[in-house]
Give the backbone structure.
Amino acid sequence: MYLSKKTFGLISGSIGVLILTFFSIFNWGRGLGGTGAHADVYDDLFTLYWGLGTVIGIGVYSYFLWLLTTSTDEEVDEMVIGRDPVVRGDSKVAFAIALIITFFLLILSDATFDSIDFFEEPETNEDSFTVFVTGYQYYWEYHYPNGLNYTSSNGGPLRIPVDVPVVFEVSSGDVFHSFALPEHRIKIDALPSRANIGWILAEETGEYPIRCFELCGDYHSLMIGHLEVMEQEEFDAWYSGGMSS
Ligand SMILES: [Cu+2]
């Protein structure tokens, strides 16, 4: 098959348009919809993986298309008994590609381990506190340091103050659940007889969904809670007021 350079350019251009469409589907330009300190870290990491993956993908597919469409040297491709196949490529280029890939993998590993450290080690301050969260079929129970204790089954939100790092110590009272705050990009396994730690630093007030991310029974999909991120004074008033939910 022989295609002119012009046709090759057209095909490459079409692929470019497809990739741009893909970008818009993911709303790259408008961000990825997260909020808080963890979303910044997580979305940066996602963008790095996606960006490097796109660079490699464009390189591989362009080369592939170029090979497919521009080869005219048919004679050397013919098999002749007794003649060695033609050696294509250049070992220096192969070595350079291996180096580039190694470099990409080093960047990705470094960024990934940094992110894991950030997620696993709560950066608390003097205002921080721990909420004990227990999963049950099919609701969440919240336990605050001052003894305040209620569940999501009556619709009461998990309340925390804005701009304060809050630690969650998560376990389960029955089966496996997973305590997830999708917008804040955290998900903590809720397992019986075991405490798992996670934390967030909410940077915007508002209501955010809490979901169970572990298939835990018939009504798993209804295991929905709400996180309410409040102004500090508002939170203090609620917290010291001793309201039950
Ligand atoms: Cu569950």
